[in-house]
Amino acid sequence: MHVLLSEWRSNFGHFLSGLGVTLELTGVSLAIALLLGFIMALARLSGVRPLELVTTWVVEIIRAIPVLILLFIAYFSLGSVGIKMSSFVSAVVALGVFYATLYAEIFRGGILAVDRGQREAAQALGLPSGIIMQKIILPQAFFNILPPATNQLSNLIKDTSLAFTIGVAELMFQANNAGATDFRFFDDFLLAALMYFVFYLILSKLLARWELNVQQHRS
């Protein structure tokens, strides 16, 4: 046990640095995923048939591709045709695009779950479509979207660990490097797992409290 704690102390600085990169990667990827996902959801609900078809195919195709392959496409394949991005940017692009397709379905489902009568009543009053969506549909859809959207965030956090395969110096990268140096892979990966767990636990508690406050405010 003493040896294990000593090993963790010696590597903790590197692991903490990796955790910082993991936090940054999660935050930027999430921002891209939410923005693109919302745009895709609106495109699928636009009523413009060609736009709906194209967006539907994009969502279905990307959702069917493993995140690891998307990472390799962004970093290696695009680089081979002259679109060169750093490993971090490639990871952000791959994770952001993949999770955008998941959030697009969450947003679309949340919007469709709003009572159709709300839209029809607003249209009967002569309100423009943009105002109806902004002032009536989206505020109600938000409560349908919030639980699955926050749950999906936990998957994004775990998938950031795949970015070590293209050289992003996040937490998993640091754990693998430490193991390759001291040959104590079990100890190093255990420390990484504990740090992921603490990160996830804190974030989940904060999100749960936020969801509770939102629901209380609604009622």
What would you say this structure looks like, in words?
The protein has one domain: MetI-like fold (Orthogonal Bundle). The protein is mainly α. The chain has helices spanning 2-44, 49-63, 67-80, 87-112, 116-124, 129-159, 171-182, 185-218. The longest helix is centred in the first third of the chain and has 43 residues, at 2-44. The termini are far apart. Helix 7 (171-182) packs antiparallel against helix 8. The model has no long low-confidence stretch (mean pLDDT 87). It is built from 8 helices and no strands.
Characterize the biggest β-sheet.
none
Percent of residues in helices comes to over 70%
Beta content: under 5%
CATH architecture group name: Orthogonal Bundle
CATH topology: MetI-like fold
Radius of gyration: 21 Å
Helix and strand layout, with pairings?
Elements: H1 2-44, H2 49-63, H3 67-80, H4 87-112, H5 116-124, H6 129-159, H7 171-182, H8 185-218
What is shown here, in short?
This protein has 219 residues and is mostly helical. 84% of the residues lie in helices and 0% in strands. It has helices spanning 2-44, 49-63, 67-80, 87-112, 116-124, 129-159, 171-182, 185-218.
Keyphrases for this structure?
single chain, flat, 219 residues, 8 helices, mainly alpha, MetI-like fold, 84% helix
